[in-house]
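note to self: the first set is below, dont mix up w the second
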Amino acid sequence: MATIVDTPDLRSQAVHQHERVGTSVLLRYGTGQLGAQIFRDTPAVLLPLFLTTMLGVEAWAAGLVVLIPKLWLIVCDPLVGAWSDRLRGRYGRTPFLVGGAILTSLGFVALFTLTHSGSPLWSAGITCLLFFLASTAFSMFSVPYLAIAAALSHDAHERTRIMVFRMIFSTLGVLVGVGVAQPLIYALGGGAHGWTVMALVLGAICLGTMLVTALGLMRTPMIRDEALPGSLLAQLGAIRGNRPFLVLLATCLIQNIGQASGYTVIGFIYLYAIQAIWIVPFFILVMAVAGIAAQPMWLALSRRWGKERTYVVASALWAAVTATWFFIHPATDVLLTIPGVGALGTQHVLVLVRGAIIGIVNSAFVMLSLSMLTDTIDYERRRKGIANEGVFAGLFSALEKLSFALGPVVAGLVMSAFGFVSSTGGAAAQSPHAIAGIVLLYSLIPAATQLISLLVFSQYRLPARH
């Protein structure tokens, strides 16, 4: 049965069903997502670019380099979740968080600094191995980190507040990991020196922010269930009766494959389709500010409309805006000049407008999907009197990582089919046909998968708490 404790030192402290989670706890929890988001997004966005323009790896092979380590995580994440469930009564989840934070940060730096060799094939193999190790280390942090969210409160709306704070730091992570990383590389010349500096700076940010969460939550009271007996397979089999979780899992898998194919070509989009690398930090900044500013609105709407309806509205709006990227091209005019930014053409302005809208809606459906995950864990606790958060978080995390591995494979295959040309030492010129394939991956493909995922989500039904 569920008991209310944190670590062995705090067994007398309780987390009441309707007690408001303190802001300091939310900040300490959310901070870790900044570093986690950097590790999640920066390799997804920049590793294919690094492999194809610096190491000479073919686009299809670059997709496989990302896929192979992610396939291992389908097994690794649930194992880490089950392991952390079994040890939480004795040690809490802190050892996993601390070890994961340190090893993930070291792995991130290694990906962009230790992968050069005299052969593209060897470089691909080295990168694949290092990404395998770094991804395993990240599981040690990310799975227990996600599980903690379901253990901080019994109240569904409080768990949405928790995810709002996580989403704020997630958005800041995107700002740093995507908006700063690529411009920093090119500001330093776009060569090996730029990639190395980027890796060291972002690796340090990963380490610092993830340790804030790992060490800052050591003495925070949490809900703790006794570990469910039996093997991992038996525990996963028991999840089959939790239909809301399975529907949410399938929805996010489909949705994330399309999004990941788009993330893979972000660097290519600004380099080839828009031809304005300099606008990336402004795009990400606009998206981040809009996303953070919209969080109170989505929290209020989720209370008024319900999480499910709010999720559908935000997802549909995201698909509509994403489809409009199909019409992008380099700016040919000067519409206005902004101090500190420079001359903006019509296409540049439209990029920034899209960024604001995407920031608003993306922040909603990502936050709400995680909030609904905690609801399905709470439903399991109500249904059986026990719920291994780590196993649920591990399975959810594994499928998310799988989808973000399949995305680069889809992107690599499409780019190869459209004639993308790989290079070493810098970006090579591409044909209009190759650029059209990149644009397709950033627009219609993710928009279509988003709509398909909503058809699956229409089967989501969460029994009410009695």
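second set (the one i keep forgetting abt)
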Amino acid sequence: MYSICIKELNRFFSNLTGYIAIVLFLLVCGVFLFLLPDSSILNNNYASLSSFFEIAPWVFMFLIPAITMHTLSEEFKTGTFELLKTKPLTAWQIILGKYSAILIVILFVIIPTLLYVFTIKALATQAGIDAGGLAGSYVGLFLLAAVFAAVSLCCSGFTGNTVVAFLISSFFCLILYFGFNALSKLPFFTGGADYYIEMLGMDFHYRSISRGVIDSRDVVYFLSVIFLSLLITVKKISNKK
């Protein structure tokens, strides 16, 4: 598992793709945080990174599938997956190795955004920033990105075409994040059912954690979606001839 993780990291950072992904994320978020009038933190009357945590999931919704789309689909296309299966590794070790590499890349993407925290702290004139809410938002953002990674890895295991893997991954990430929230707004589900439908979406649990209180129900939700996605991936590659 460790060797697969290192191999995936080397593949990702051996060319400009990995660095472009990190710079692109920081650039897009930076534009929303400092340049666009409606979301700029410079126009707020209080020190907050709420606009960053609102836009980051939407950027991740496309960035993570772009990072992950080659993970399995390219191995199927080039035939290297058959060689990988000859190694003394179980399907779980293969998938967890690849998934661990994706999580490390996500950390490399998120960590530089701590610069925004110091910027906000420097701009604050009185009480400073809400440390509890900020910590919860970062935990929620990482869990959300981890789910996107697991779903994207799963989708990559169903096709040998990287473009198709990207499109399918982005679609399912969109459905899981915003689809249930949009569905709950339909008049047909008013009267109590809308709340439970909204609970099925990641946006509900992400907003809950972002308030600064890490509820075990939210954590269990994220971990359950991750485990289910990885389980489907393992079953898929185990049955692949």
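remember for set 2: The radius of gyration is 19 Å.
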